[in-house]
């Protein structure tokens, strides 16, 4: 049985996420940040390159994860969305959190990069060089179908991934879908997910 159309399921998943975020106090969010960092660190025992994202206030928090990865000697890259919904990548800065460049395209409320900034970009194919890819998502089902924010950004970006590098989505505990999520041909399945309680589920 499927959960409904992408639009409807996304709408419901966003509402559920807002509710979950409303019920999460700063201490619980900090505990979730630590649980995520501990769980994801176990995927990368040796120093390597990891793609993460800068979380927005309702999303599973990634700030601690970025700091823990950097402290363990990993290279960490994070995305910026471009005009055509492809993702550019840059090195993560400790302490940064999601802003306009995270989910708004330049010219659509997003940040206009200057030449200096563009020079530091790593390319839209930078996932090819990563040993682990951590993605955002609203839900994941038992086949690894991921429901995102609807830009198709990660579907495009994941085409470049190294197939031997695991792709894991961060979810709030309870956001995984028991029903099959709607999937299109362009959807790239993920290998597992990590929840805000530190639960790791490998699907493939
Ligand atoms: N923290 C975080 N970073 C992330 C994602 C995410 O889900 N979370 N993304 C996951 O894919 C990518 C960005 N995804 C996007 C999805 C939709 C739109 C979009 O439709 N933007 C509209 C403006 C929307 C608004 O005003 O609210 C636009 O640019 O016209 C942009 C980016 C990359 N970075
Ligand atoms: N590889 C691709 N090349 C071109 N367009 C694509 C590609 N993948 C997805 N799209 C387009 O992006 C749009 C959004 O796709 P979808 O609803 O699957 O996004 P999503 O997976 O929820 O978002 P995201 O990947 O940003 O988290 C669709 O119109 C789809 O056709």
TrEMBL record:
Keywords, ordered alphabetically: ATP-binding, Magnesium, Metal-binding, Nucleotide-binding
Enzyme Commission number(s): 6.3.3.2
Keyword Transferase listed: no
Reactions catalysed, as given in the entry: (6S)-5-formyl-5,6,7,8-tetrahydrofolate + ATP = (6R)-5,10-methenyltetrahydrofolate + ADP + phosphate
Ranges of biased composition (kind: Basic and acidic residues): 1-11
SUPFAM superfamilies linked: NagB/RpiA/CoA transferase-like
InterPro entries from the UniProt entry: FTHF_cligase (IPR002698), FTHF_cligase-like_sf (IPR024185), NagB/RpiA_transferase-like (IPR037171)
Cofactor: Mg(2+)
Enzyme class: ligase
Pfam families named in the record: 5-FTHF_cyc-lig
Region ranges (Disordered): 1-24
Matches recorded under PANTHER family: 5-FORMYLTETRAHYDROFOLATE CYCLO-LIGASE (PTHR23407:SF1), ATPASE INHIBITOR/5-FORMYLTETRAHYDROFOLATE CYCLO-LIGASE (PTHR23407)
Family: Belongs to the 5-formyltetrahydrofolate cyclo-ligase family.
Entry protein name: 5-formyltetrahydrofolate cyclo-ligase
